[in-house]
Amino acid sequence: MKIELIQNKVYLNNGSKKKEIHPFWLRERVNGEKYLDKKTQQRLFDPTKIKEKIRINKLNLSNDYLEITFNDGAFTKLTIQNILKEFSNFNEIKFIDKIEWDSSLKSLNNFEFKENFYEQQEMYNALVNFYKYGFVIFKKVPTKNNFIINFANSIGSVRRTNFGEFFNVKSKPNPNDLAYTSLPLAPHTDNPYRNPVPCIQILHCIENQVSGGYSTLVDGYTVTEKLKNDYPNYYKILTQIKVRFQFIDQSIVLEDWSEMIKLDDNGNFKQVRFSPRLDFVPLMDKEKLDLYYEARNKISELYNSKKYRIEFKLMPGDLLMMDNHRLLHGRTSYDANEGERFLQGCYIDYDSTEGRLKHLKRKFNIK
Ligand SMILES: [Fe+2]
């Protein structure tokens, strides 16, 4: 890709096609100190207030820079690299390829927590791993005084829900959710009934004295790709039918409609939701429902299969950070009489975590 000039016009040549870059697009990017606040990179002018038809009066192209004088008197010197970057649609997060994994996964993406960890390159590596695998485990994270909130707010912002800022997972009498028992929990995604669904879940192990209670993870992306290849009809219906996910208690009714497998605008994997106690399919033709139920059974079978599941024991100080739009999580049963098992959990959203990843990338000048 390169920039070319023909008379007073700027063209982008991608090797096979040449396209003119709109002069106003360039005028909006004028970057002298009169036009742009250097610190925030925010405009000091409002482009919607420029009423005259913008044309280019003078152009000069060197190896690294494009100099432009516009008909309204504005002059700018733009870096070629920055212009090309905008056309390459380069997005640091989407650029990180997901790695499909199953029960054969060897590394549990362990990173050791240290003081001032959030500003170190190790944190950048951890976040890249998070986007590759959908999870990371931080070891030796302090367990006192609800440290999970401190951790969550240091790499993102806690997403408060009607359950509060964070939740305590331990078996208790009269639980309002199976999570608060010692029963096994089949693989599921959390809170599929919210809009938006919490993006990232953090689980911090404070105490674990029982012999069972293993944490389980399944890569929803791997399972989705498997379904797409081996059972295209099932894949198709699960990406098409919007089902109602619901949560009801005495003070709130939460509902959201979505496909079990959500694709992005390009038809690629975006999100899975799976919680077969909370989903309600709309009434459709019997044949269509037949197919839908077969598809749901199959994906449930895959999600619950040992082939795709990893199991590990969280020890005090271990903090699991997982992508709730990609992974399913669960746990094996345990005997509450053996001792205490106590985890704390909370949610954070993607935007601030992505922002931190980009910040660290910039800070350490990582290409
Ligand atoms: Fe859960």
Report on this structure:
The chain is 24% helix and 29% strand. The chain is α+β, with helices and mostly antiparallel strands and 367 residues long. The protein has two domains: 2-87, NE0471 N-terminal domain-like; 110-363, Double-stranded beta-helix (4-Layer Sandwich). It has a six-stranded mixed sheet with strand order 9-10-21-13-23-11. Strands 12-22-14-20 form a four-stranded antiparallel sheet. Strands 1-2-3 form a three-stranded antiparallel sheet, with no helix packed on it. Helix 5 crosses helix 6 (232-240). The model has no long low-confidence stretch (mean pLDDT 93). It binds fe (ii) ion.
Distinct small-molecule ligands in the complex: fe (ii) ion
Low-confidence stretches: none
Helix content bin: 10-25%
Number of helices, counting only DSSP H or I runs of 4 residues or more = 8
Count all strands and give the number.
23
Radius of gyration: 25 Å
User: Major sheet, described briefly?
Assistant: 6 strands, mixed
Structural class: alpha+beta
Which architecture of the largest domain does the CATH hierarchy give at level 2?
A: 4-Layer Sandwich
Gap between N and C termini, in Å? 18 Å
Strand content: 25-35%
Kindly state the mean pLDDT as a whole number? 93
* CATH H-level homologous superfamily name of the largest domain: Clavaminate synthase-like
Summed up, the domain count is 2
CATH class of the largest domain: Alpha Beta
CATH topology descriptor of the largest domain: Double-stranded beta-helix
Q: What general form does the structure show?
A: globular
| Strand line-up of the largest beta sheet | 9-10-21-13-23-11
